[in-house]
Amino acid sequence: MSSWHTALKPQAYSVFVYNSSGSQSGNRFNSFSDLMTACDRVAGPKTVVIEQNETIPSGAYNFDYIKFQGNGLAYNAGGYTLTFGTGVTITSWTFGTVSSIRLLSTSSSAIWTTSGGFLLTITDQSELWGSSTDPFILNTGGGQCILYLGGAGRLIDNGYPAFETTASAFSCVIIVARQNSSTVDDDTLKSSNSVILGDFIQSTVIDGTLYPASHSGLTIGVDISAIQTSSSALGISSGANADFPNKTIFYSTDNANLVYKDSGGTIHDLY
């Protein structure tokens, strides 16, 4: 009786460990460049576990679908910091996530410049810090920019706002979604032109005395911020453009998307 066997290929890693002071083998890396090469070879979500404070080497990096994972502690209570200095840039970060990691810029320019919208999840005592002179994230083309603050996630004022947009008026929608125990410092958001801001409390476990934050460099054209607990939520009406007064946001059945009708009656597509 004949027999046959199917050759099995090794399973690719989806979890990697980075420690610049450690060894390199298997899914453990001490070279950040090699780590990024390995991540690029894996489609879909992957996690990079950080074991100590690290400074990212100079270079341009694609972080698409990467979650950076710390040890579950805040950076000032035994947790870790990823420092991004001058010469480091993020070229793309689709579905970016950080868990118990402080993202700290010490750069003289933005770390992540994006021409469109994004979703960045900052959770489990993670923090986002710009440098003293420049933001961590710079948006240039508008879109829906979502900062999702999970358990004890924080936006920090380090002398310059963590997020800045230079997009045209009403083209940038900034969404800050606050979950359990998350906080937003004053002056962590900045814009060159009018933006649409939605700063939402979505948990009852948040200190309401710190809400809303005040951002002196942010020009708010429309504020749709709200406390969205089990007893309240934001409702968006729909209808024809002519049916709504000026200075309102609604779903336009004429444009088939969400729009803003400014003080002069001009309709602006939001997405």
Question: Overview of this structure, please?
Answer:
It is a single chain. This protein folds into two domains: 15-206 and 217-231; 236-271, no CATH class. 3% of the residues lie in helices and 40% in strands. It has one helix and 27 strands. The chain has one helix spanning 32-40, and strands spanning 15-18, 28-29, 46-50, 54-56, 59-62, 66-69, 80-84, 88-92, 96-99, 101-105, 112-114, 118-123, 127-129, 137-139, 143-149, 154-156, 163-165, 172-178, 183-184, 189-191, 195-201, 220-223, 226-227, 238-239, 248-252, 257-261, 267-269. The chain starts with 14 loop residues before the first strand and ends with a strand. Residues 230-234 have low confidence and may be disordered.
Give a topology summary.
Layout: E1 15-18, E2 28-29, H1 32-40, E3 46-50, E4 54-56, E5 59-62, E6 66-69, E7 80-84, E8 88-92, E9 96-99, E10 101-105, E11 112-114, E12 118-123, E13 127-129, E14 137-139, E15 143-149, E16 154-156, E17 163-165, E18 172-178, E19 183-184, E20 189-191, E21 195-201, E22 220-223, E23 226-227, E24 238-239, E25 248-252, E26 257-261, E27 267-269
Parallel strand pairs: 1-2, 1-3, 3-6, 4-7, 5-8, 6-9, 7-10, 9-12, 10-13, 11-14, 12-15, 13-16, 14-17, 15-18, 16-19, 17-20, 18-21, 21-22, 21-23, 24-25
Antiparallel strand pairs: 25-26, 26-27
Short overview:
The protein has 271 residues and is mainly β. The protein is built from one helix and 27 strands.
